[in-house]
Amino acid sequence: MKIKVYIMHSDKINYKDDLYKPLLEHGLMHDYFLILPMSNSFIDKFAKDLINESDIVICNLSNSNFLLNVEMKWAISQNKDIYYFIKNDDKKISKFKNYKYNVYSTTDELINQIIALLKAVNQKELILKRDNIFCLGKLENVKKKTS
Predict the structure, then answer these.
(1) Are residues 60 and 8 in contact, defined by beta-carbon separation less than 8 angstroms?
(2) Which of these, 127, 146, 147, 145, lies nearest to 137 by C-alpha position?
(3) Which residues contact 64 (CB under 8 A, 6 or more apart)?
(4) What does the pLDDT look like over 59-81, one tens digit per residue?
(5) Are 33 and 58 in contact (CB under 8 A)?
(6) What is the mean pLDDT of the chain?
(7) pLDDT tens, 82-97?
(8) Who wins on pLDDT, 28 or 139?
(9) CATH class assigned to 3-131
(10) How far apart are CA 9 and CA 15, in angstroms?
């Protein structure tokens, strides 16, 4: 089953050209189910419901606005795994000092960071589903003790 990834962002960025298009062109749709909230497929659905349906959330903090903050609170309240990204020249970067985020400077850099993250998450998920043992990214043979 594909991992459902909600892509969270402000509507103040050029999300179609700087986020959606590069992700879709990279071919991620083959390995992941991307939930792009402002796309034609999801525009009429409630963000809260889409977040609830997702397995993980990728949040671009750049040019944040009120709606992005609301979506972040929904995702946090649902205990979603959230991975944050922010552009290095964003004026509000200090607002997010309590968050662990990845910094990027170009669209290509952002897309490469997201792809690397998704590959790592996907690999972890496969290991967890296979044997329910995940130890520093590598599967361990564990013999059960018999009494």
Answers:
(1) yes
(2) 127
(3) 10, 12, 92, 95, 96
(4) 999 999 999 999 999 999 999 99
(5) no
(6) 83
(7) 999 999 988 888 888 7
(8) 28
(9) alpha beta
(10) 8
- For the ranges 32-36, 127-131, 135-139, the one whose mean pLDDT is highest: 32-36
Residue 99 is predicted with a pLDDT of 81
Nearest residue to 60 via CA among 26, 30, 22, 31: 22
| HEC-encoded secondary structure of the chain | CCEEEEEECCCCCCHHHHHHHHHHHHCHHHCEEEECCCCCCCCCCCHHHHHHHCCEEEEECCCCCHHHHHHHHHHHHCCCEEEEEEECCCCCHHHHCCCCEEEECCHHHHHHHHHHHHHHHHHHHHHHHHHCCCECCECCCCCCCCC
Site of tokens 């659905």:
45
What are φ and ψ of residue 7, in 5° steps?
Answer: -100, 105
What are the tokens at 75? 């995702």
For residue 62, which amino acid is it?
S
